[in-house]
Amino acid sequence: MKYALIGCGRISPNHIAAANNNHLKIVGICDIQREMLEDKACRFGLGEVNQYTDYHEMLSNEKPELVAIAAESGKHAEIALDCIAAGCNVIIEKPIALSLADADAVIKMAREKEIKVCACHQNRFNKSIQKIRQALEEKRFGHMFYGTAHVRWCRDYEYYAGAKWRGTWEQDGGALMNQCIHNIDLLRWMMGDEVEEVVGMTDRLNHAYIEAEDMGIALVKFKNGAYGIIEGTTDVYPRNLEETLYLFGEKGMVKAGGQSVNRIEEWRFADIQEKPETVIAEFTEEPPNVYGFGHTPLYADMIDAIKNDREPYVNGEAGKRALELVLAIYKSAAGKYSVKLPLKDASTMDFAGLFDIKESGDDMVNKDGKIREGTKA
């Protein structure tokens, strides 16, 4: 299967490795920065692979069957629509888009063109998460009470300075949209997917040079009666601490921890089907970084979905649900009220300037959570 990659930045090595591990034929790589192309070509022995700074040209010349999009977040939807129009199946790095309208447009065009779309929430493929999901589907938890998702990471000035789009409302969003959306996806997925109401608070505590939040917390009420708690930050000193997911049910409780929910740390069930220490030992991975080992199985699933004309395990609708929950938190935090789901429309750009005026009073924010026109910091 002919494969191409658009975006050769921080996460691209995981995509290239996943493509190689799944024996895809890499026919092109693309980035607007020539040095990024040369770096990845050298590191992965891609000297014979054609390099492009214009992805339109690459799509036209190479005609790949599968394209991974790993450019800045604000470009995901635009590039995905162009790829779908060219007949390419797509793996879209998180988030699938920065607005619900753009996510809907990607999903709609893909359906019309019979193209597969995979949202790259690779942590769903962690051994720990797959084991927890199996227990959930076997109803071992009984009635679910609540779950919590925590991302306690560090991102310093060098990280944000390394790419100017990071931390901007137009191209990224903040800690919840970038660093925490994987765990937010897992919490929503595990707790039944359907959200009724969200109450959120966000702030920019330690990164005055970015536009968006570096800390966010939220309470989530699910339609099945369960609750969720979300905590995400890039303010932890001096390095990443943990990413954890707790699930509490009537007959079971688990904790996934480590840098990126890659370890089962608690395993308690009333049915006692296996020894907790056995599960903890067997379903723990030690990846070299927070990106984990999930890209390779995610690619394998996408390839199989294309070949067998089925939906990917993490499809476009799943990507939209994770996006929607983050935007609902933003909306609640900006408007200082609870938000009901589903959202009709929302975008990160609705919150542009929010922290620039945060000390100027609540009267600068409309009740729909958007900054009033004409308001200045």
Task: Set down the secondary structure blueprint.
Blueprint: E1 2-6, H1 12-21, E2 25-30, H2 34-43, E3 50-52, H3 55-62, E4 66-69, H4 76-85, E5 89-93, H5 100-113, E6 117-120, H6 127-137, E7 144-152, H7 157-161, H8 175-178, H9 181-190, E8 195-203, E9 215-222, E10 227-233, E11 242-249, E12 252-257, E13 263-269, H10 276-282, H11 295-308, H12 316-335, E14 339-340
Parallel strand pairs: 1-2, 1-4, 2-3, 4-5, 5-6, 7-10
Antiparallel strand pairs: 7-11, 8-9, 8-14, 9-10, 11-12, 12-13
Helix pairs in contact: 1-11, 4-5, 5-12, 9-12
Features:
377 residues, alpha/beta, Rossmann fold, Dihydrodipicolinate Reductase, domain 2, 2 domains, eight-stranded mixed sheet, six-stranded parallel sheet, 12 helices, 33% helix, globular, disordered C terminus
